[in-house]
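Lab channel / #folding
Pinned by the channel admin:
"Please post every new chain as: sequence first, then the structure tokens as a reply. Keep commentary short and put observations after the output so the thread stays searchable."

First post following the new format, from NK:
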Amino acid sequence: MTSSEAARPAGGAARAVTRTLSDDPLGGTVRRTVLPSGLRVLTEAIPAMRSVSFGIWVAVGSRDETGPQAGAAHFLEHLLFKGTNKRGALEISSEIEAVGGETNAFTTKEYTCYYARVLDEDLPLAIDVMCDLVADSVLAAPDVETERGVILEEIAMHDDEPGDEVHDLFARAVYGDHPLGRLISGTDETVTPMTRRQIQSFYRRRYTAPQIVIAAAGNLDHAAVVKLVRQALRGTPLDTDPAVPAPHRSATPAVRTRPAATVVEPKETEQAHVILGCPGIDRLDERRFALGVLNNVLGGGMSSRLFQEIREQRGLAYSVYSYASQYADSGLFAVYAGCAPGKVDEVLDLTRAELARVAATGITEAELARGKGMSKGSFVLGLEDTGSRMSRLAKGELLYGNLMPVDELLARVDAVTLDDVNALAADLLGRPMSLAVVGPFDESAFAVR
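Reply from TO:
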């Protein structure tokens, strides 16, 4: 469906447009409705389930903030649970918990999600509560101050977790001052002076109907979900004039990354945390399926090259793995290891040697088969609950502009060849590598190699 399908039809009033996207043998029936406001509703009906996961996804994340706004999206995520014109904070939580349900939210660099999981019979309640808090929060001044304190404590707690901090340090090494290099939570310097008016302005400018996707999966009826959503949003700021859905975030222009750098956060820790990596590929790059296979082979499991070499054979680290992060216009590929400070040099030497070896000679047919199997298995096994299915619907719509059927996705993985993976490895692993370290060192302890 194109965005124009949601517009006012010729010769008539604006109306919702519904379409069946798939009737997947490995899942349920997926339907999509575009409301006149441009807000989209996607559902997957799975009659065998007795629960429903319901999520409201907003195409706004920390990368949409200016420097002085850093942390606004995350601050807002906290505040929306503090009260609306209909409910106080206690009512929001107690209404869902009274029926055994659960609610939560999270902010990423490119989107924010608010979700609930309830029994199927309690879906109307979940829709009413979640739509209310996202559409009609009051952002009361006392709540702003309360949550400011909570967020500052969260930032301090994060600083006490070097295994988490090193990932943010690595992003800053690659992206520098670009929003993708900033902390999602913001910092003490940006959160402390942030005013209610600034947050309110961010809320109303960014949380608009065309930027929102509502997704639900489980034992449900699509038409009933759409009706309940429209009722819950009636009269709120999301009940707006006809509009078309916002397009998914553009991949152009690509994000400019920094030259390879070494960034060290000196800390008296018992364990050193290191990340070695480079800019990767964006999420619409056709090589993303080959990247999934390559990542599995290098550091995606206990049978991976890095795990076997560094942990199993030499016992140098308890945790070692590789990962790929992908955004609309950029990406990262990296290897993480946590080890004793005295073993950092050896771990880095082994990691660099393995990456260089794969870049030069590629992987084997046996590794290709194993990497494909891991990709397919983790994807299908990840669809065993309503929450993951709900997330798949929303991400397909919000991030990719379409929902790839399960069989097609598996076929795309199967189609990856040895040449595909080896060509990607030669390109990706041959790039200059940045290094991020948290531990009892200073930058003079490391040289960019």
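NK: The CA atoms of residues 3 and 244 lie 6 Å apart.
TO: also worth noting, The longest strand covers residues 317-326.
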